[in-house]
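Why does residue order matter? Because the sequence determines the fold. Keep that principle in mind as you read this record.
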Amino acid sequence: MTGRLSVFVVDDSPIVVAGLRSLLRKAAIELTSFDSDVDDDNDANQAETPIDLLIRTALSRRPDVIVMEARLNDKDILYGILRIQTEIPDQAIIVYSDLDPTVHIARAVALGAWNYVGKHESAKRLLRAIQDAAKRVPPPADSKFAQIQQIMNRRTNVDDPGFSFTRREMQVFRLLGLGLSNHEISVALKLSLETIKEHVQNVLRKTNTVDRTQVAGLAVKRQLI
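Structure:
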């Protein structure tokens, strides 16, 4: 990172973008958003999905930090994190949202985000997160993001609730409890989708549950997340 810090904001609320622009201007941080990058009369742009637009703009702008909502135009765009990381492996991305924090923090961790800040949190907290992300400073250990990251990385089965899980099955059990899809678990654990499906089936069988919703409820009940 050299010169003036640059941030690309991905949010479909003009009020949020304007507020962030004012906040970052005071901190001498340059902000760009879709508003300044998209020509509404361009047919090619109109045909793009929100994730396509996110990827194209990120690649053209190469900002120091991306601050993005979890949804854009009522469509989930968190998978855009994974696609950006494929193209720009070191890109720092902060998810800035007011959606269910536990599930979306876990998804953000799994897909490669650097941090998560709730829209209910202070401007000071967001600004600090942006500055830390630009320097690649990890989120504070006591933050919800870091705590969920630790839970997701934990593989030990010392707290196995009596289901005779392998260590990997215990880890998958926790991730199901956090609401992750098979694909997201696959990305988080760097295992093939088929391997994850097998682990999920083993967890269902050992817990005598019929679907992942029951598994998630059981994980919460056993206080494993």
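Strands lie at 6-10, 30-33, 65-68, 71-72, 75-76, 92-97, 115-118.
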